[in-house]
Specification:
The complex is a heterodimer.
Chain A (H helix, E strand, L loop, with lengths): L1 H17 L9 H76 L9 H13 L4 E8 L2 H8 L1 H18 L5 E4 L4 E7 L3 H16 L3 E3 L2 E3 L3 E7 L6 H17 L5 E3 L3
Helix pairs in contact in A: 1-2, 4-5
Chain B lengths: L8 E2 L7 E5 L4 E8 L4 H18 L4 E10 L1 H19 L4 E8 L3 H11 L6 E6 L4
Parallel strand pairs in B: 3-4, 4-5, 5-6
Antiparallel strand pairs in B: 1-2, 2-3
Helix pairs in contact in B: 1-2
The chains are: A alpha+beta, B alpha/beta.
Chain lengths: ~260, ~130
């Protein structure tokens, strides 16, 4: 609207200047100079605005390019971290699997000798009181010989499940050898350990598995010993082993405690 | 053929992948774990080869991968290589990737799939059964 007014005014002035009757009027010359000066200034201002606009556009485009580049870098960085995290998790899982494999028995998933040995050393170095029980399945070889190793393995797993279900959560039960298990009873004296083992032996004798139409169950012999202050855990183990041997010789299906 | 550069034939080690390139066949292959000490040095050669091939040849380029574990700098190098392929593909070049993984290790396929995310060229992830 304002532009329109200005155009109309300029057109009116131009018409007045062009009219022959105004030639020679004292104001004619001054108005003509004013008119030309105004037109020049108008061109200048328009050029200035146009240059300024182009600069603004350039700056904006540059900013958009930077922004896009930044977003792309950020996306790449996130993708890199994500994939890298994935590989790290993979590595950690592999390590855990290896750790599990090196400290546990694959059949029964019980701790193996290595892990039990570590626990025993910990207990000795912490000066904790503990008792050990070595359990051995009576005549296990006969099961393997008569029914095959698959049945033998199934029996071992069934015995393991009963052992794990019966023990206190702070007890440790490991597979010591073929059909031998070691119980590590922390903060437990020999008398208490004996009661635990007797209860356990009863429950283990009730474990039954089936081979075709035949039910199979076994009895368990046990040798117990209590750690004596200052002795290496190997000595405690040796006494439990000797007690187990004696229980076997005395007719199996019983537990014996090592004398101090 | 004056623009041809010598092919790569880098034997793998426990921590570095084996790498072979075949300029004539338009083929680049990498196998194994990758957590080398000199990651940039190793992959710079590969990136250089790919860049050179794409710049000087109009023939297709195929990547044959059987990579297993990658550390972060190796992941970055592979992303750079896949980006080079994407750029070439957008200008109409024929490029493709086949990533083989041990069928027992599905996690590797998931990670290969993450790499594939921004690639619009053919990128196959194929299980290999048994020992690899």
């Amino acid at each position: 609207m304002k532009d329109h007014d200005e155009e109309a005014l300029l057109a009116e002035v131009a018409t007045l200047l062009d009219a022959s009757e105004h030639t020679g009027h004292p104001l004619h010359c001054a108005l003509q100079r004013l008119y030309r000066q105004h037109c020049d200034q108008r061109v200048q201002v328009e050029r200035l605005i146009s240059i300024s606009d182009r600069y603004q556009l350039l700056a904006m485009e540059a900013q958009q390019v930077t922004q896009r580049r930044y977003e792309r870098t950020l996306r790449r960085q996130r993708k890199l971290s994500r994939i890298s995290d994935g590989y790290q998790a993979l590595m950690r899982e592999r390590n855990q699997a290896l750790q599990q494999a090196s400290t546990h028995d694959p059949l029964t998933e019980l701790p193996n000798r290595r892990l039990i040995g570590e626990r025993l050393e910990e207990l000795v170095s912490e000066r904790r009181r503990f008792s050990l029980a070595l359990l051995d399945i009576d005549h296990f070889k006969l099961i393997n010989d008569h029914h095959g190793h698959d049945i033998g393995d199934r029996l071992l797993v069934a015995i393991t499940q009963e052992l794990s279900a019966t023990l206190r959560h702070y007890d440790l039960c490991g597979r010591w050898g073929g059909e031998e298990f070691l119980l590590l009873l922390a903060d437990t004296d020999l008398q208490e350990a004996h009661a635990i083992v007797e209860r356990l032996r009863q429950r283990l004798a009730a474990v039954t598995i089936h081979d075709a139409d035949q039910s199979l169950s076994v009895t368990v012999s046990a040798g117990l010993s209590q750690h004596l202050h200052g002795e290496p855990h190997q000595t405690t183990l040796k006494r439990a082993d000797e007690a187990l041997l004696k229980a076997k010789r005395d007719g199996r299906d019983r537990s014996l405690s090592a004398t101090r | 053929m004056t623009t041809m550069i010598s092919d790569l034939d880098i034997p793998g080690s426990q921590s570095a992948p084996a790498i072979q390139s075949d300029w004539q066949a338009g083929r680049l292959a990498m196998q194994g774990d990758s957590y080398p000490e000199n990651s940039y040095e190793l992959f710079d050669q590969v990136i250089h080869w790919v860049r050179h091939f794409l710049a000087n040849q109009q023939r297709p380029l195929h990547l044959e991968l059987a990579l297993v574990y990658l550390n972060t700098s190796s992941v970055k190098a592979m992303m750079d290589i896949f980006d080079l392929l994407e750029e070439a593909f957008e200008t109409g070049r024929e490029v493709s990737v086949t990533w083989h993984y041990d069928a027992r290790n599905e996690r590797i396929a998931e990670l290969a799939d993450e790499f594939r995310e921004d690639c619009s060229y053919p990128f196959a992830i194929i299980p290999v059964s048994g020992e690899s």
